[in-house]
Amino acid sequence: MDNEERVITPGPVPVATAPLLRIVLWPANLVTIGRILFVAVLVVPMLLGHRWDPVTTAVLFVVGYWASDFVDGWIARRTRTCSSFGESLDLVSDRFCDVMLCAYALVATPEYRWAILLFLLLRIAPDTFLCRFLGLKDNLFYSAVKLHSRTYRLLSKENTVKLGIEANHSIKTVFFGSILFELRVPYLEFLFVAPAILYAVLVVEVMNAHARAVLDKRE
To answer: Residue 7 pLDDT more than 80?
Structure first.
C-alpha cells in the first residue's frame, strides 16, 4: 500500500495528500474502526455461548452497529476529511458487520436461514466481484449513481437515493436487533428480503449501465 493517500475535498479546494497513519487516526476513520470492534465484541462471545445483559447488548448494537454507520460519514463531511481510504474502510466495515451478525442469526434462528443466505449472496458477492470484473470502486448504490442507471434516475427525481440507503440499513437493524433481543416478530424474514431484492435490482442495473457506458466509449 502506498505511504500516502489521496484526500478528496469538496469544491474547488486543491487536492491534498497526507500520511496514511494520520488518515487512519482521523475521527471518522476511528469511528469506523470502532464499529468493527464493537460488533466483534458483541457477536464473537455470543457465538461462543456467552449471553450479554440487555443493556450491554443494546449499547454494543445500537451504538456500534446502527449509530456509528451514520456518524462516521457525517464526521468526515463536517471535518472535510473524506478519503479513498475512508471509503474503502467503510465498505470493509459494512461487510464485516453484516457477515458477523448473519453468522449469529444463522445460529440463533435457523428458521430464517433462507432469507439470511439470500441476503448474504446478494449483499457480499455483487459488491465484491463487480469491483473486480467491472472495475468499479464504489458499492452498488454509488456505482449506480456514477453510471446513471435507470434505477438511480428514477430515484433521483425525488432525491431519495440517500433515503433508500438509510432505509436499507434500518431494515437490517430491525432484523438483527429482533434476533439479538429474542423478539419474535411475525414474518420478520420477509422484511429482510427487501434489502436482498434491492441489491438484486441494483446488480442488474449497474451491469446494464456499465455495458452501455462501455459501448458509448467504443462508438
So the answer is: no
CA dihedral 198, 165, 181, 90 (to 10 degrees): 110
Question: Helix (H, G, I), strand (E, B), or coil: what is residue 137?
Answer: coil
Q: In a 3-state reduction of DSSP, which class is residue 10?
A: coil
Which of 34-43, 152-161, 163-172 is the least confident region? 152-161
User: At 185, phi and psi to the nearest 5?
Assistant: -95, 125
CA distances to 20, 84, 85, 190 from 4, in Å: 5, 11, 10, 45
Domain boundaries, the chain: 1-108, 110-219
pTM for the model? 0.73
- DSSP letter, residue 83: B
Q: Which amino acid is located at 20 in the chain?
A: L
Quickly tell me which residue has 438511480 as its cell: 152
Rounded CA gap, 187 and 192, in Å? 9
